[in-house]
Structures are given as structure tokens and as C-alpha cells.
Amino acid sequence: MGIKGLLGFVQNTCPDTCHMVNLQTLANRHKTSYPGCIPTIVVDAMGCLRKWYTPHDWIHGGQWKEYLCSLQDFIDAFQTAGIRLVFIFDGVIEEKKREEWVKRRLRDKTEISKIFNFIKTRKQQPDRSMFFIPSGIATFTRFALKNLGQEVFCSHVEADYEVASYGLAHNCLGILGEDSDYLIFNTVPYFSINKLILDTLVTLMYSRENLCRHLNLHICDLPLLACLLGNDIIPEHMLRGFQRNCTAQYRSQYSHPNQRTQVIQSVANFISSIRSSPHGINEVKRRLPTWFDSLLLQKGLESYVLPHQTSPWLPTRLLDHGAYAKETDACVCPDKEIVQIVLDDHFKGDNVMICNVLFNGVADCSNTLEDDDDREIPGQALVYKLARQHIYAILFGTGAGSMCSFPVVKEWYIYPENQLLQPDLVEAVPLSVPGGTPSLRDLLLDGGANIQMLRFHTLMACFQVEFCKEELNMLEHSLAATCCLLIYLALKVNTFSLEDIDAFLSHALCLGRKSAEQLKHLQNRGPGGLSPIHRTNCPALDASTKGSFSALNWDSVPTNLLPAC
Description:
Strands 1-7-6-5-2-3-4 form a 7-stranded mixed beta sheet, with helices on both faces. A 3-stranded mixed beta sheet has the order 8-9-10. Helix content is 45%, strand content 8%. Helix 10 packs across helix 11 (259-274). It is of the alpha/beta class. It is found in: Nucleus.
């Protein structure tokens, strides 16, 4: 989530609300105040990816070992200062945020198109000003941080809510991220990742108390301010009339030339004027358009109220932040034991996509770096559709066996011509294996001697490469996964050539032993030299490679090969 213009307002209009601090100094004070307690910073991992991904040649998405070095340097800096880190990743897209998610995906799609147009026109790598996170980096970063010995969790609800809750519940030193909503939550201090100087651990810290003093509000009023300014739950365009009226009636006598600043100050003045009224929330609703859904306002307010907190702006506290726990009984998957196992794995950062499919029958995938104008190769969402359909058959079974009874999953995937007006309804497709599609219960809970082989054969069947499963089983897991995907691509994409396969295999076999420093000095590929292969998006591969994740390196896979985030 986020409130448009709020951080800029804080930095430019009320600078006393933010100031530079030394995190090691704060950690030392924390140790003094709480003896025996290790100073802990909870990290909004998704908000830090751009900061962590420092390799220059980002368009290839291939500098994996360099990226690992960047992560290790980050961890080492905090460990040296005696600060423990806890990383939380987005684990679910709540349906109340779907409209905003779609807007962002379409906006990112436009930005990716500009990147490829730049490459085709200039025949060179775009600079950092056009930087777009390499596909799959969030998925890989989770496993990388685990391999580096860090605590990693995936959220059951919106990540910023879980980050704020964790920080408050565990008396953390603060939150590290880049999201204006952390100024709204009544939680621990908020530190900026973008302003962080790693060598000195100096960064910008925001003060909710000073913001409230500047706006003449209380901390409990900040959620209402966020809702009336517009956030991911209440789109700003729905509030423009209300904001115009506020600006006309409650504009400060010291009018600011910046229009957004005027709006923020005027809305704050309005809230301050009705705060003491016992029916203040009714006055808010009266000022909003008649067509405005008041339930939306309630949901917006609830999204900022952490466990064991209350809000004077909510008549009742019907909070839904425990949605996953509450919905277990209403889950799409009826097997409660399986649901709990999947839920636990999800929280630990494993098999994240599966949880939402089993709970809500929904799958989604963010943007990947692929050229929509290149008609020779279909989008990755279409290339791997059949593999996903096989996985859905494993997750839900295949009904009564007739085509009309196969389970259906709602997919929000990005590919050319898809404007995301509604989800694609994608049927499960049974696996063509002896004995039929194995059940999820058997694959997860069976402790028999042959279960590992069944799991491996099932994975191969999902990618329709079971005809060479014996040969693949003789390879290291990372190489088997690579070969599995290359064979699948060769079968599915007509323009995938033998030269492409040779290039991938030679990189995988020859470069894995090189250090990050050696890889930095390898000769670059020719200008505009992007391989025609697009990133896959398959949770089965995610599960099959996590045990040997350190063997995978993006220098050995110069283009988009492994699972997308």
C-alpha cells in the first residue's frame, strides 16, 4: 500500500518529521533499555529488492553471484552492528487490492515495452533510470536469504500489515522499507531503505509523532487521513470531489503552491475539526459522494489497525487481518490437514503460489521481462500454461473424471493482448501417467520408500518429459531442473533452436565454478543480444530446486529461465 505524495510532503514541507539516524547507535541504546534483547529490524523485503540488486547489466537478469554478494554485504553490515534482521515477503494479493494490482501490472507492462524499444532502437543496455526488477528475483531472494542463514517469512495478508504487526509484537528496533503506510501504522519506528548508507548504517527515520504535531492530529487519526487521501483500497479518483471541497473550505492560511501539499493539509484540517465529535465518522460519510460505499472506508480503516489496537473512527471492530486463519473452514481445498501443512510452508516462504490456489482457487503472476511485440515466441504465461494445469490437477484432483467436472482456477497472468479485465478460467488437466494423477495427500504425507521417486516422476510428467525421467534422475537436481525446462521449451516453442539449447547448457556447465569477481570481468554479449527464451512460472520447479538452490546461478542462465515471482 501507499499514499501518493505523503513522503514527499513529509520531506519537503515538515522536515522535522524525518531526520538522519545511525542504526548502530540506536541499537546500542536499545540494548541498554532492554537488557538481554537483541536489537531487531524487520525488513519489508519487497521494498528492498531495488536497493539490493546492484549489478549493472540488469536486463539479462543473470548476475546471480554478484547479487548474492550484495545480499551478503547487506547482512554483514547489520551483523557487525549487532542487529538481527527478519525478512518478510509479500505472500498474497488480497482481492480488495486487485484493482490496484491490475493498474500497476498494466503500468509496468508499458514500462517494459519502453525497455525493449530502447534496446531495439539503441542496440545497447538501458541505464539504471529504466531499471526493472529482473523476473523471479523475489522468489530467488527468499531462498538466497535462507541459505545465508536469515529468518524469512511470507505474509498471510498484505505484507506491510504483517511487517508492522511483527515489529510491534516483538518490540523491534524498527522497520526498514520504503512505503508511506509505515508512517500510518501505530507501530515501531520506520527507516528508509532508499536513504540507507550501508557502510555507516546511517539512514532517514520518520516520526509519526512529529507528523501529527505538524498536522494537528493524533496518531489514531492517521488511518483516516490515509483513507481520505487515497490508498490501495480506496482509489484516489473516488475522492477527488471530496478533496476539492476540503481544499476550498479548510485550506491553511499559509497556502502552499504544491497542490498535493494543499490537499494533505486541508484533509488534515477537516479531520481535526471533527475529531472531538462523538459522531465524527458520520460527518466524514456525509461529506463523501452519495454513491461512495461506506464499507470501503471501514475496510480501509481496518487495514491499519493492528492486533490488540482499536480506532475511534470504527464503530465496531470487524477486522479481517486474520483472513487466512478464519477462512480455513471455507477453503477451496476440503482437506484441513493438507491446508495446514501448506499454510505452514507458505509462512516459511516455501510453495507460496500453492497456498492462494488451495485457499481461493486463484493464481497470479507479476510482470516478466519479455517483448510483447516479438510474435515468434508466446508469452511465458502461455508457454507454461499446460504445466500449471497439470499442477492444478495434483492440487485439486480431477473431479469425477469427466471433462465437465475438472476443477477450474482463476488466473491473473500477464501476456500480450490480456488487459486483465477479468481472470482467465483455467481447467486442471490430468497427468498422463500410469495409475492416474497422484493425490496431493500422497505426495505430501506418504512416507513410503518410493515416495521420492513418485515425486520426481510427477514433476517430470508436469513438464511432459517423463520419457527421459531415468536420464534426468541421474543428474544433479539443479541440472535436472535446467534440462527439464529446456526439453519442455524445445517441445512447446517452435522457434527454440538447438543453438539456444547449446548456449544454455554450456553456460550452466562452464560458469558455475567461477567467482562473482571473475564473472564481473567476462566479456559482454553483443549489443541488444537478448536470448529468445522467456522466464517460466512454475511452483513445481520452485519446490524441486530449493534443496540445491545454491547450485543455481544466474550467470549460468543469462536469460529468463527459472520461476517468476
